[in-house]
Amino acid sequence: MNGASRIIHFATDDEKRMKVVELGGAHGLVNMLKAVKDDHTRKEALRALVALSHTDIAVGSLHLAGASSINSYTPDSFEDAKVMGYKSSLLKRFQDLKFDTTS
Description:
InterPro entries: ARM-like. By secondary structure, this protein is an all-alpha fold.
């Protein structure tokens, strides 16, 4: 189980999501997405970002960490609908809360 998977299992409520953000989890996941080469790890990092995005305050931290620019460093994966779903979900959360996603 990688770090992203652990975050998914831990971030089950607002308090825990904020703890992950406070401890640098948002930055770590964004950095992971920027550097990762394999699809499985990319999918887990996106899934963890989506898990954190269920808390509005965490979305602001995700935006500051650079997560709103996921399109620029995560390729579209038409073979894996889950990757596209995670990206869409995350981008929708940024848009719902009026964060710029054009970067």
